[in-house]
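Researcher: Go.
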Amino acid sequence: MRFFIAGIMQGSLAEVGIHDQSYRAAIGAAIKARFTEAEIVDPMELHPDGGLNYGPEEAKRTLLEMAAEAAQADVLIAYLPEASMGTAVEMWQAYRAGKPVLTISPLAENWVVRFLSTRVFPSLAAFESFVAEGELEKLFEL
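Model: Structure:
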């Protein structure tokens, strides 16, 4: 089972920077605790500085490669405490590929969150409980 962790990196920051990425470890740990053989695809592990130092060609290639990776995963988990255009692209690619999109976000009325998500969780704790209680298996017949 292959899980893709999508989520805010640069978000809407006007200056060069990265949002706190600790959610990635928490999501990965929740998945691994339940699915020990899971493959976790985490763009931040693949691009540790979030691509901040990439030139235009490498940045574009990375954006497109991560969107393609999102579509290849069995499940996409998106963390969106606020809007993120890159995450929206990854969600769209997974949705178009017919993959489940689990979104952790308070933005339940945002159209991307609302219409592309298989399920929306209001918090990381709610998502972790969902996985720990075996609901992921039930929802997707894993």
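Model: The mean pLDDT is 92.
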